[in-house]
Amino acid sequence: MKNSIISIFGFACVLACVSSSYAQTIAISWVEIAGTKIIVHYDLESANPNHEFTINLFSSKDNFSAPLTKVTGDVGNEIKPGKDKKIVWDVVSELGNYRGDLELEVRGKLYTPFMKLSGFDTSIKYKRGKSYPLVWTSGNMGGQIDIEIYDGQTRVHSDRGVPNTGKFEWVIPGNVKPGNNYRLKFTDTRNREEVIFTQPFRIVPKTPTPVKLLGGLALVGGAAFVLSAKGGGSSGPSGPGSLPGPPDPPN
Question: What is the DSSP letter of 229?
């Protein structure tokens, strides 16, 4: 199987440079054939080890015009620098019964997300009808984002065109049903493929049900007291602090 794959596909490893002034480079070191998959090994170097990058794999099949999609491993956003990074490409799923030579190219650029949420605690209970401050680092201060509430795969509320300034007073609508599978979705309105989801969190009623029941019982007790007092019989309250009864009629 390995020999037949090699006879169909030829490879030329192409050096691709990540832009710039930060002395960042990326280079394919070698290519491995594993059944119907191709594993591209590359090195990503940066003068700043804390930088993160967007990495994509391209092929000469379409003249390197669009990134390959059937890829896993050290590819996509938030890739940190390091040696022997790996991209696993499923050739058959991507190209089908393609025959001919291919060149591969790894491209990278500094990862600058449109926003990066900070301080959103998914462990607490969020109450419907209340507001909560959202804070994030903006990658595009002049842009706008959509902020949506999802219950599983269902969108239940959205705030459209929020300025991407790094802060927003988020109000949970009062009609949202309690549940523990909610997520926030942030979308860049200029590029709707740029999306960020939070981890699941819980939404609860603003006033817990037991408190409402206790309030109702207190009201019923008060009504019973008024009715008893108006009755004027022995069933009314007695003891210190009780109102005196009416005087006896004259003989």
Answer: H
- DSSP reduced 3-state for 6: helix
Distances (CA, A) of 33 to 24, 41, 87: 28, 11, 12
Dihedral of CA atoms 68, 74, 80, 84 in degrees, nearest 10, equals -120
pLDDT, one tens digit per residue, over 185-241 is 999 999 998 899 999 999 999 876 555 545 544 444 444 434 343 444 444 444 455
In terms of C-beta distances under 8 Å and separation of at least 24 residues, what long-range contacts does 191-200 make, across chains too? 191/114, 194/113, 194/114, 196/113, 196/115, 196/116, 196/117, 197/150, 198/117, 198/120, 198/122, 199/122, 200/122
Q: What is the pLDDT of residue 51?
A: 87
DSSP strands (E only) in 24-121: 25-34, 37-45, 53-59, 71-73, 76-79, 82-90, 100-110, 115-118
- Cα distance between residue 146 and residue 187, in whole Å: 5
Global pTM value = 0.53
- Degrees, nearest 5: CA angle 128-131-133: 135
Judge contact between 170 and 182, C-beta under 8 A. Answer: no
Residue 103 in tokens: 């060149």
